[in-house]
Amino acid sequence: MTTFNWGFVGAGMIAKKALYPAISRSNVGEIHAVASRDADRAMTISPKGLIYTDYDQLFADPAVDGVYISLPNAFHLPVAIRAMKAGKHVLCEKPLGMNAAEVKEAIAVSEAMGVLFVEASWNRWHPRTQRIQEIVQSGELGAIKRIRAAFTYDGLDGGNIRLDPTIGGGILYDLGPYSTVAPLWLMDFPEVSNLSVQSVKHSGGVDETTRVNYTLGNTVCETVASCNIPETSWLIVDGEKGSAKMLGDNVFNSRHAGSLLEVEVGGVKRVEEFGPVDPYQIMADNFARKAMGGSDWVMPLTESVRFAELFDAAFAQIKM
């Protein structure tokens, strides 16, 4: 079996705690090399001990099939474009760009180069996430009247990069790709209307609590993302015939733990159980197989564009 050789760009927390262990357990891919300005940190996630302190050296390595980018948000687009122009497939942390125009620019490069380009919204690969989407779109709940989604945490210190406006900080870019956009993919991307945004800003200038409400056809959507509210999450869908709920502390970040989906239709309630999985590994392996010519599911770029357009519209209200 052919092995997909990964190159990591960045050796921060997500790379070390999520993708490194996921790929280490994989029988599809392996980490060939790591590029980072911090050579010591790069060495801790490079099983072969191969590191580069220049990203372009990694992109020039003929043994690298594709790269995973986990840099601060503002660097995603330019680095992804450099990698794709070097002929590498790219799995890039969310968001792909700082606005929809940037995302479309990168997509054009991926199409011109004939390489795979995917946003690493890892929760979308979780079987429970895909199951609630299947239930909603099957019509089992009837016409969907209301969707509520939340993902919050607190306790960031002032020096955290998520609070730095110069590198794409802010909660909408951090947790928005989970809770804020959930109604879009649940409802298969109808047009957004009646957008209303309420945002509390951090002293550094970025948004730290952002409520984005909107309508999708006849469905009212209420979402919140925050880094100054105690940790919580939920995804609740109410239809004319019933409801589906993902509750608890792992709605958007279930990993290595069992999870539940509560469905009630016509007064009859059932609970669907999902065993422990690692969505990061499912995502990485699907990406690798897709890049090698397989038919495995990866999140379409058309969805990334729609997410970026929603964020653009929300930021336009935040900055008014």
Automatic annotation (TrEMBL):
<dbReference type="Pfam" id="PF01408">
    <property type="entry name" value="GFO_IDH_MocA"/>
</dbReference>
<dbReference type="InterPro" id="IPR036291">
    <property type="entry name" value="NAD(P)-bd_dom_sf"/>
</dbReference>
<dbReference type="InterPro" id="IPR000683">
    <property type="entry name" value="Gfo/Idh/MocA-like_OxRdtase_N"/>
</dbReference>
<dbReference type="GO" id="GO:0000166">
    <property type="term" value="F:nucleotide binding"/>
</dbReference>
<keyword id="KW-0560">Oxidoreductase</keyword>
<dbReference type="Pfam" id="PF22725">
    <property type="entry name" value="GFO_IDH_MocA_C3"/>
</dbReference>
<protein>
    <submittedName>
        <fullName>Dehydrogenase</fullName>
    </submittedName>
</protein>
<dbReference type="InterPro" id="IPR055170">
    <property type="entry name" value="GFO_IDH_MocA-like_dom"/>
</dbReference>
<dbReference type="InterPro" id="IPR050984">
    <property type="entry name" value="Gfo/Idh/MocA_domain"/>
</dbReference>
<dbReference type="GO" id="GO:0016491">
    <property type="term" value="F:oxidoreductase activity"/>
</dbReference>
<comment type="similarity">
    <text>Belongs to the Gfo/Idh/MocA family.</text>
</comment>
<feature type="domain" description="Gfo/Idh/MocA-like oxidoreductase N-terminal">
    <location>
        <begin position="4"/>
        <end position="117"/>
    </location>
</feature>
<feature type="domain" description="GFO/IDH/MocA-like oxidoreductase">
    <location>
        <begin position="130"/>
        <end position="244"/>
    </location>
</feature>
